[in-house]
Amino acid sequence: MYAALLAWPRATLAKAIQDRIAGSDFEAIHAKIWHTPGERWFTEDDAIWRVHADTSMFIGGIRALLLQSLHPVAMWGVSEHSGFRSDPWGRLQRTSAFLATTTYGTIADAERSIAIVKAIHRRVNGTMADGRTYAADDPHLLQWIHVASVDSFLTAHQRFGQQPLTSDEADDYVVQSAVVAEKLGVIKAPRTVDELEAAIREYRPELTGSEQANEAAALLLRDPPLPAVARIGYTALAAGAVSLLPPWARTQLRLPTLPIADRLVAQPLAQTMSSTIRWALSGAEPGADAA
User: Fold this and answer.
1) Number of folded domains that form the chain
2) How sure is the predictor about 196, in pLDDT bands with cuts at 50, 70 and 90?
3) Per-position DSSP letters for 85-145, written without gaps between them
4) 125 is in which domain, residue-wise?
């Protein structure tokens, strides 16, 4: 009886977090990925497999969207075409499905998913208020989205993941992520952590806060439409994501920089919630491997 009472909130928490961040079709997508036979780009021994399987990805995904929003050209395209105001979670969920397919799926399914994204990108273009034109398949913009994502997923994994990567494994993760990025249209994706950090620095002069970026941050960080137990959990994950942003990014997003609060409150809460979700999704004891 006691075990049954514990199972209900655990299942409720897992389902609520999955639906909000990964989408309500999370289980169907993953069932198809795992049960479809065929050659794959990566194996369970690869760093990318480990990083993308860990619940720290929930934190990394929120951080990635916040960081990506600081490129005004990229954010203008998102605001004009993605419908993020009416569906702020849709982009996070589509990214989750894409990452799962390209990381764990067959090569055929991964290439099909990439082709779909590229076709969408070709249709996304326009003109900003200042007269500058943009296109979603611009390799320079694609590279920003890529480096912001990889930096966020790796940063979150190293801080909140169950098994942080060694320095060599972290380089492996960066180069494995480049496989998919270059098939999407990135011309020369970073191959090491040092190159990744250098790429972020190179984009700094282009990055700034904007009305669209602040609106995106508000949509991601305000109280989400979740059951009470999951809302508390999501708030902890979001606080962890914000705590991992560099100070310059927090300033541009009008988010306070509070190092002591991050270290003593936000990050311990995010760590606890990440471990709890790992437990909830795995059906095992807290701290067990979610993959």
Assistant:
1) 1
2) very high
3) TT-TTHHHHHHHHHHHHHHHSBHHHHHHHHHHHHHHHHH-EEE-TTS-EEETT-HHHHHHH
4) 12-282
